[in-house]
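#structure-requests
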Amino acid sequence: MLIQEVILENFMSYEYARVPFKRGVNVICGPNGSGKSSLLLAISVALGQSYTERSKKLSDLIRWGKDQARVTLILDNTRRGKRRPVRKFNKDQIFLTRVLRRDGKYWFALENRAATKGDVERLLARLGVDPDNMLIIMHQNMVEQFTVLSPQEKLKMVEAAVGLEPYRRNVLQARKKLSRTLSQEDSVNKLLESAEQTLNYWREQYDRYQEKKQLLTKRRFLERELAWAEVAKRENIVKELEANRRREQEVLNQIENEAKAKTEQLQIRQNELQKLKDEWKRVFDERLTLEREKAKKESTISLCEQLLRETTILETAIQSLGNPSFPVSQITNSENKFEEPFATRFKLLKSDNLKELAQNSDQQLSKFSKEINENQTKAENLEEETEKVGNQVIDDRIRLAILQYRRENVTANLEKLSRKLIDARAYVDEAVKRSEQTGSRIAVVKGIGEVLDEIRVTDGYLAALSDVSEDIERMYESYSKLYLELKEKARLVAENRERALEEVKARMQAWRTVIQSLLDRVSLQYQSIITQAQAVGGVRLVNGHDIEAAGLEILVGFKGGKPVPLDAYTQSGGERTTAIISFLLALQQHVRSPFRAVDEYDIHMDPKNREMIANMLVSTVKDANAQYLVITPSQVTFTKREVNIITVQNVEGTSIIREVA
């Protein structure tokens, strides 16, 4: 930034003045109190400074008796090659104005338009000017102030003046990033530790939950096994009933086969008996023809005797069967198994008159004895044969009756077994349906009692785990996921920390390299300048390993003394001023700001050093594309040099520009 002209209106001792500046060195000289320093103060205020050593309030800078002051800087915006310094304004001059009011209101104007301080700061940043850096604008007494600054503050000012602040910002940003990363890592590690403790708790609960799930699975399997064991039990019952029914069916088949054989045998014997009876009837009919009555009586007696014998034989047969309680009425009343004559005869056996009839017939038999002697033998033989065959028929009928009884019992048992089998199969089907709801069929190797015992034991274990809920699995999975996420995040944060450390190291190395290179060059130039003042010295970086503690030390030794750090106590005022101005001159070729100013730097210098510094200042700025404003009470120092000299005088309380050479 080059200032072409400064316009002052009611600013301090100036009522109205226009001060033109040129490229190179501009020297403002004049007696004390003439308003020399007010010019630099006006430029600083126009550039945005809100505090000055003259006053804590900007309103105090307004000319006495006036309500408003105005400072306008006309900035050079001519093209430098193909582009202007501020491309936003396509013109050769930029008007920057600051207005001060007595009521405390201040504002800026750019090209006669209201602007904010931010607009001005962006404009100055674009031009590379920092009005608050005393290495660029050094007001009165700032030489002494620079001396008492800490090495760290001095270094920061140098960085800002030469444009190396981005290196420091990069390091600080990297360290801030590292700090955030370390803080984040610490937080993540604490969260990870807490999550791990919580996860361990939920892992224990999850193990209990898994145990409960296994027990529940086992219990469901036991319920399934119990259900299918019940099915197997009922199937065994069905098998047993089926076996019993088969056995009963075999018995029934055997009975039916035997009854069929007996029936056939009975039929044969009945036919034989009928033939004997027919033969006997024929003989009897022959006798009846001769002696009907006698034969009738004889026949009656014979029949009675025969019936009595048959009764005896029947009772004997029944006893031989081992069933004396066998009811005789069942034989007589069975379903057409015996012939009617036999039934009738059998009923006669029960008559009370049977014996009486026999006795009466016997009494009459003597009458007919002669008539039956001839065929008696034959009749007796027939009767014996008939009796024998009849007994056999009776035996067969008894056997058939017994078989019929047994068949009825077996049939009844079969029907009962069939009903039981139907019910048992229904129970099996029902049990199978219930069991299928528990799962497919499994082989059952344990009894129902054993399964029930295992179920009771399992229920006991489950009762001990009754406080375990199903939410545990969700909580465990949630915390497991959170733990893994935190673990991954911790890994990423650790990687970020390593990268941040590397970045800090790299940026720190870059900063240290450029700073050390700068100070090495400045130190050489400083040594060259300070040597002309019959002194030795140097510039060095201290605590370069830590950017926060790093500082700049200016070393100087006068009158043959060893170089020692410059401070407010070791050197005299002139020595301090000479050393500081020598340092500023050594730094000039590295300063990026096109505008620089220093106010009354030579007050404490002897004439020789004042002359030497003036020569160095002119030669340093001569070939640079910069503008240097020097305020000095001694014009003689810069006489006959290529500088722009501006003389300020105060006439009756008003500063005026008397001479411009």
